[in-house]
């Protein structure tokens, strides 16, 4: 129930304050090692295991502790929007120096990965950690050599699969919410 409430709040925040530009997914992205640079999360969007091209993704960072109470508007920080390539792949980047202190707790950020495709939207929350050489990983004990966090969504089977920096896989149900025709995720 908590995840549904979080998703609804996240969607309301996105509806009320979405800005950004859209970039195409990079052709090649380093998924492990120091070459990952500022890649925070990557993945693949599919429909019944077939790649989805041109799906739009971005993430919102949640403040660590700003005294927000139930019903208050939450001041999130949004990344640039990217679109999936012809193989359904995407990578979202964040330079750690661009993060205001109110969004980072020690070396961790809480974020919602947002997907907009076919006039529907989904959101999934997770955490990313800065480790050693200031690269993003799924937890504070991961190493630079480990892979970045992977979050993949199948909009046909309504599943989201996370693969953490240690290779552990978790699959959950994904809720897709129809959006009004006038909705623009930017």
Short description:
By secondary structure, this protein is mainly beta. The protein has 1 helix and 14 strands, in the order αββββββββββββββ. The relative contact order is 0.22.
Q: Can you put this structure into words, describing what you see?
A:
By secondary structure, the protein is mainly β. It has one domain: Immunoglobulin-like. The protein has 1 helix and 14 strands; from the N terminus they run αββββββββββββββ. The strands form 2 sheets. Strands 1, 4, 5, 6, 8, 9, 10 and 14 form an 8-stranded mixed beta sheet that branches. Strands 2, 3, 7, 11, 12 and 13 form a 6-stranded mixed beta sheet that branches. β2 and β3 form a beta hairpin. The radius of gyration is 16 Å and the shape is globular. The protein starts with a helix and ends in an 8-residue tail after the last strand.
Give descriptors for this structure.
Immunoglobulin-like, 14 strands, six-stranded mixed sheet, mainly beta, 186 residues, eight-stranded mixed sheet, disordered N terminus
Which spans have pLDDT < 50 for at least 5 consecutive residues?
Answer: 1-21
Distance between the termini: 28 Å
The description of the largest β-sheet is: 8 strands, mixed
Cα gyration radius (Å)? 16 Å
Counting DSSP E segments of at least 2 residues, the number of strands comes to: 14
Number of helices: 1
Helicity level: under 10%
Based on CA inertia axes, which overall geometry fits? globular
What percent of residues are in strands? 35-45%
Total count of domains: 1
What is the CATH superfamily classification? Carboxypeptidase-like, regulatory domain
CATH arch. level architecture: Sandwich
Q: What is the string of helix and strand elements?
A: HEEEEEEEEEEEEEE
């Amino acid at each position: 129930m908590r995840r549904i409430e979080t998703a609804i709040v996240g969607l309301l925040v996105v509806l009320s304050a979405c800005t950004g530009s859209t970039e195409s997914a990079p052709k090649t992205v380093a998924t492990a090692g120091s070459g990952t640079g500022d890649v925070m999360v990557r993945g693949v969007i599919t429909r019944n295991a077939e790649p989805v091209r041109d799906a739009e993704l971005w993430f919102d960072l949640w403040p660590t502790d700003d005294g927000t109470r139930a019903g208050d508007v939450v001041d999130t920080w949004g990344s640039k929007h990217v679109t999936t390539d012809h193989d359904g792949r995407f990578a979202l980047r964040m330079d750690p120096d661009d993060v205001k202190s109110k969004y980072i707790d020690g070396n961790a950020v809480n974020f919602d990965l947002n997907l907009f495709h076919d006039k529907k939207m989904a959101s999934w929350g997770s955490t990313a950690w800065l480790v050693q050489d200031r690269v993003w990983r799924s937890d504070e004990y991961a190493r630079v050599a480990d892979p970045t966090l992977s979050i993949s969504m199948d909009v046909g089977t309504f599943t989201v699969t996370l693969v953490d920096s240690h290779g552990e896989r978790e699959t959950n149900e994904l809720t897709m919410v129809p959006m009004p025709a006038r909705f623009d995720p930017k």
